[in-house]
Design brief:
5-stranded antiparallel beta sheet, 7-stranded mixed beta sheet, 512 residues
Length: 512
């Protein structure tokens, strides 16, 4: 267990300024000549407005980052996304729109009557697009998990316009982890309000653009294979009645409206992709939290679903308040020991069910210990195979060679290693043998690893892994872009900058 008593990880949660123009990075090692394009990343960059702090990791205002690669040279640029939440906060010099874990109080300058009535105007949903960046056709969007996505210019990082998904499809929000198929089709899952204050789930499909068209739908994670969509329903839910009433009446934030159901466990829902129709098979397992799918694929009448789980029904987001993450190391460890524990797991879902097999394990694949048992109530109870586990060590923010192996049998995944919630290493995992390779340096805090395949790759792991690392104790260059050999996780090069870079969540590599 690596210790971090100096607390350098606190620099991940410090406000920074945007840059007026790109800065040149100092390169050590040699950038591969074939690596041409831009690494785009998204995360929070403003953690307070004036004297008003944001309280949760998912509240800071969205900052877009870009590392450009051209002929062995690297530049770094960043700009805040001009969302309504950001622009109004800058204009009024206070937090105007309620975020995930921070309530926005009514304007104190208004009189008591106008403040009272502002409580009853309904919920103003944030458009703070700090979680991910993804393409739709030739356009790029920054997003969070509400119904708003923000079109951005990937070259200049300028904000182009806000798009409300509600105007195009019947959803109140959508995941920040859509799947983009090789032909450009985008799949996502959204939720909408159903009858009797229930939540329903909708599959969103954005077809690939034809030549000359623009996108008609300027549009947590799920599994997608050539024939199926897998959605995991965890025990953590938004209480819709509380969301619609209490929010207006006594000033709740999103976190106040989540509830954990101690008895429901987890349900896995499978839909046929082409027909959009749910399979009439009820898959169940014990309770866990889930943020990221690793990969999902089909094999001989089974769906193999690989997930980054957190064991138990308690909401892991409860431990991601900034006060927890900025605490001294001993306190960070103490809190993490109380939290749900991380585990990467493989579940196997049989697609053909025969009632004569009640009581039997239906999994016949030779390479997994995962089981699926048909019960007398016709539910299929799943027990996983553990593919990565360490005490308070998470394998999270998983990435694969997505273009060639997304939705297909695969061998390797790359992840960000969290040590008591502190990101302190990068991992490569062989999901078949469970062998791991690790990159780690003292007082260095990386971000999600992005795999970039070599243009002439013959093997699944031919390529490089890119990650933004902060190393606040190492002199005048506190952050750098790290380039690793994807085969053995050895360092190829780094591009250092003279500015701090706060935490980033997700992103992509846009080839030149």
């Amino acid at each position: 267990m690596v210790e971090h008593p100096a607390g350098g990880y606190k620099k991940l949660f410090e406000t920074v300024e945007e840059l007026s123009s790109p800065v040149t990075a100092h390169v050590t090692g040699r950038i591969p000549t074939w690596l041409r394009g831009s690494l785009l990343r998204c995360g929070p960059g403003l953690f307070e407005v004036g004297a008003e702090p944001f309280y949760h990791l998912f509240d800071g205002q969205a900052l877009l980052h870009k590392f450009d690669f051209k002929e062995g040279h690297v530049t770094y640029h960043r700009r805040f996304v001009r969302t309504d939440a950001y622009v109004r906060a800058m204009t009024e010099k206070r937090i105007v729109i309620t975020e995930f874990g921070t309530y926005a109080y009514p304007d104190p300058c208004k009189n008591i009557f106008s403040r009272f009535f502002s409580y009853f105007k309904g919920v103003e949903v944030t458009d703070n697009a700090l979680v991910n960046v993804y393409p739709v056709g030739e356009d790029y969007y920054a997003c969070t998990e509400t119904n708003f996505i923000t079109k951005i210019n990937p070259d200049t990082l300028e904000t182009i316009k806000q798009v409300d998904l509600c105007k195009y499809v019947s959803v109140n929000g959508a995941t920040a982890h859509p799947h983009v198929e090789n032909d450009g089709t985008v799949y996502n899952i959204g939720n909408c309000f159903g009858k009797n204050f229930s939540l329903a789930y909708n599959i969103i499909r954005i077809p690939p653009l034809q030549a000359g068209q623009s996108a008609c739908l300027q549009m947590s994670s799920f599994g997608l294979t050539p024939n199926y969509i897998v959605f995991v329903e965890t025990p953590v839910k938004i209480n819709l009645l509380k969301f619609l009433s209490s929010w207006s009446l006594w000033g709740a934030n999103y976190m106040d409206c989540f509830e954990s159901n101690e008895t429901m466990g987890v349900w896995l829902h499978v839909a046929e992709k082409k027909k959009g129709r749910l399979l009439n098979i009820k898959y169940r397992t014990s309770a866990f939290n889930l943020f990221h799918h690793i990969n999902t694929f089909e094999d001989n009448g089974f769906l193999i679903v690989d997930l980054c789980t957190w064991k138990g029904f308690e909401f892991v987001y409860n431990y991601l308040y900034l006060a927890n993450l900025r605490a001294n190391w001993d306190e960070v460890k103490k809190q993490a020991e109380k939290a749900p524990q991380p585990e990467a797991r493989r579940y196997v879902l049989p697609l053909r069910i025969d009632k004569a097999d009640t009581g039997k394990n239906l999994v016949t694949l030779p390479y997994t210990t995962a089981t699926a048992t048909l019960r007398s109530d016709e539910t299929v109870w799943l027990e996983p195979e553990v593919i990565f586990s360490g005490p308070r060590h998470a394998f999270e923010f998983p990435q694969i060679n997505y273009k060639k192996y997304g939705g297909k049998p695969y061998t390797y995944t790359y992840g960000l290693g969290l040590n008591h919630f502190v990101p302190d290493r990068l991992c490569k995992l062989n999901v078949k043998t469970k062998e791991t390779w690790v990159w780690q340096e003292p007082d260095s805090y990386p971000s999600e690893p992005i795999f970039v395949s070599h243009p002439d790759a013959l093997e699944e792991d031919d390529g490089v892994v890119l990650s933004i690392v902060i190393s606040p104790g190492s002199g005048p260059k506190p952050a750098y872009l790290l380039i690793l050999n994807a085969k053995d996780m050895s360092e190829v090069a780094r591009a250092e900058v003279e500015v701090n870079i706060p935490v980033t969540f997700h992103g992509l590599f846009k080839r030149a």
